[in-house]
């Protein structure tokens, strides 16, 4: 079977109640649930949460909430892999044997059903442990600068001061939308960012981290513009 797990704890700090705060007219988590449902990839779509209100919203949007996430997996320092591994273990203990498991973030309104389906194909065909969404940096990372303690600037890689941008290797970063993985990889805690992962490359205009109120405002503007286009 193929399983979607959407982690959504209740204790977000920088944007309170972020997972269910209205985004473009709907609770944020509903966009992720919609994409999972529309992808046609999953036998079950579950939300892992410690929060009753989030559970109610997720259920209303079409996901299952079959358990309450333990408190020791619901603090600010809990990583993604243990949360997914817990969900997979719960499923196995209750009669289901997922082969492929996709973590979809609750705060990823730009996630699309076709990208999720593409990620599954890449995972199956590549033989990788994971396949996850990435996008390219808009500026060469080799020419990045830092602000020093005395307010001055210096390059991270000064040897590339005179290197033409087109001669520098393109770099990518995590798009923060979804992570397909084989059950064994999740349960064994294999690292996602490794040579054992394959890339699902997304265009930059459909990627936006949402960690601060400023991010939120920018994301809604981008989201509206993309939908209108």
UniProtKB/TrEMBL annotation:
Q: What is its EC number?
A: 2.7.7.81
Alphabetical list of SUPFAM superfamilies matching this protein: Nucleotide-diphospho-sugar transferases
Instruction: Cite a single GO MF annotation.
Output: N-acylneuraminate cytidylyltransferase activity
Give the protein name, as stated in the record.
Pseudaminic acid cytidylyltransferase
Q: What is the lineage of its organism?
A: Bacteria, Pseudomonadati, Pseudomonadota, Alphaproteobacteria, Hyphomicrobiales
> Keyword set for this entry?
Nucleotidyltransferase, Transferase
- Is Transferase given among the entry's keywords? yes
Q: Which domain of life is it from?
A: Bacteria
Q: What is the native source organism of this protein?
A: Ferirhizobium litorale
Q: Is the keyword Nucleotidyltransferase in the record?
A: yes
Q: Which CDD domains match?
A: CMP-NeuAc_Synthase
A Pfam short name: CTP_transf_3
């Amino acid at each position: 079977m193929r399983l979607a797990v959407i982690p959504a704890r209740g204790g977000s700090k920088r944007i309170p109640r972020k997972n269910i705060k209205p985004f473009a007219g709907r609770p944020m988590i509903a966009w992720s649930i919609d994409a999972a449902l529309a992808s046609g990839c999953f036998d079950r779509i579950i939300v892992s949460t410690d929060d009753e209100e989030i559970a109610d919203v997720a259920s209303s949007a079409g996901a299952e909430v079959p358990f309450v996430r333990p408190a020791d997996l619901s603090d600010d320092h809990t990583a993604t892999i243990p949360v997914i591994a817990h969900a997979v273990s719960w499923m196995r203990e209750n009669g289901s044997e997922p082969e492929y498991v996709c973590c979809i973030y609750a705060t990823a309104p730009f996630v699309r059903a076709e990208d999720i389906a593409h990620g599954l194909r890449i995972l199956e065909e590549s033989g990788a442990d994971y396949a996850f969404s990435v996008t390219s940096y808009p500026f060469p990372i080799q020419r990045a600068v830092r602000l020093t303690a005395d307010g001055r600037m210096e390059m991270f890689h000064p040897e590339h001061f005179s290197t033409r941008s087109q001669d520098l290797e393109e770099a990518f970063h995590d798009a923060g939308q979804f992570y397909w993985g084989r059950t064994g990889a999740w349960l064994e805690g294999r690292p996602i960012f490794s040579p054992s992962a394959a890339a699902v490359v997304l265009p930059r205009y459909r990627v936006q981290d949402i960690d601060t109120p400023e991010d939120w405002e920018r994301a809604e503007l981008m989201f509206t513009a993309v939908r209108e286009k």
